[in-house]
Every structure is written in structure tokens, then in C-alpha cells.
Amino acid sequence: MEQEVDLDSLIRRRIRALRTSRGWTLDAMSTRSSISPSNLSRIETGNRRIAVDQLIPIARALGVTVDDLVAGDDDEDVIIRPEKDQQSGRTIWALARGQGPQEMSVAKMRIEGPVKSTDDMGVHPGRDWLLVLSGTALLHLGGRRIPIEAGNAAEFSTMTPHAIGALDGPVEILAIWSKDSHKAHAVPTDSRRR
């Protein structure tokens, strides 16, 4: 019963926080959701039960899903204990459970050496983003060789043949991959990281 009360309170706080973060008054939210300002106020303050048929127009008005509003607040979802996945001079630590917003994946990579052969450069749909944390990365992008020093970032279409190696010693990067890139880069599955 206590968990139900906590979730109810969490849903109410989310609705109010989302509404106020958009700068909307109760009247503005009412216009968007077709729920009266007084009912919205009672929902937010806990003076009225939240009915499922009210969650749909509230979620739609706020631009979120009903699942977003009613998701539990479980601390286990906060901590990720990434495991190493070592392959061909690279170590990858997946930093997200599955794919995140807009079907993106996040990983930390340590690359020990240069690209061995540009014949193995990948091409696939999607986009890659990377931030060099330490060392200097050498991005092979088509016929170009682009050094990227610590603190700098890069973004590119993965339809251009590409590979990333280390220049003058190991490099650590934070990589963000789109959905198709995630598949191509073979990020460890969720079950391997738990």
C-alpha cells in the first residue's frame, strides 16, 4: 500500500514539475489537456484521485507517454556497473541499459593502438559522436585522417567509411551511437552488464 501511495505522489509531482518547467499555468495546461484547471489543481495536490482516462490527455499535453508518468522510482535503475568487453585492442564499457532517448547508446572505449588496416573501415546507417577523454584519437573518415585531442569531440555520418584508432599511445573516448551504429559496434547486451 505504501508503494502505491509513493507512486501516486511521484506521478503528481511529475505532472506539476513538467507543467511548471514549461512555464504553463493551470489554465494553459487545461487548454492543452481539456481537463479543467480546478481538476488539474486537485490532481497535482492530491485532493483528487488520478483516473487512467485523465493520464492520457495529461501525458499527451505534456509531450510524454503515460509510461513516463507512471514509471516507478527504483534506485536500482540509477547505478550501472559496466563490465569490460575486450576485442581487438579495444575495451568497451557500455554506460546505459539498452538504448536511451532517441534510441541512442553510450559507451566508454579505450583504444590501445592505431587502426591496423583501413580496409576494415566500417560503413553503416546512423551517426556517431565521440568525446576524447584522454590521449589523442585518430579518426579515419573516408580518405581523411583527423586527430582529435582530449577535450574535443567529433560527430559524423557513419555512411562514410570510418575507423578510430589511438595516436601516440592509448586513447579513452566517450562514444554515443545512434540505433544503427549501436548494432554495428556490437555493444554488449544488457544481460552481460548486470
Short description:
The chain is an alpha+beta fold.
Task: Describe the protein's topology.
Elements (H helix, E strand, L loop, with lengths): L1 H20 L4 H8 L3 H9 L6 H11 L3 H5 L13 E4 L2 E5 L10 E7 L15 E15 L2 E6 L3 E5 L4 E16 L1 H6 L5 H4 L1
Antiparallel strand pairs: 1-2, 2-3, 3-7, 4-5, 4-6, 4-7
Helix pairs in contact: 2-3
Could you please describe the fold and organization of this structure?
32% of the residues lie in helices and 30% in strands. The protein contains seven helices and seven strands. Strands 1, 2, 3, 4, 5, 6 and 7 form a seven-stranded antiparallel sheet that branches. A hairpin with a 2-residue loop joins strand 4 (127-141) and strand 5. Helix 2 packs across helix 3. The radius of gyration is 23 Å and the shape is elongated. 19% of the residues are buried.
Structural key phrases:
single chain; 194 residues; alpha+beta; seven-stranded antiparallel beta sheet; 7 helices; elongated; disordered C terminus
Share in helix: 25-40%
As a whole number of angstroms, the C-alpha radius of gyration is 23 Å
Overall pLDDT metric = 84
Structural class: alpha+beta
Judging from the principal axes of the Cα atoms, what is the shape? elongated
Q: How far is the N terminus from the C terminus?
A: 29 Å
Number of helices: 7
Indicate the proportion of strand residues: 25-35%
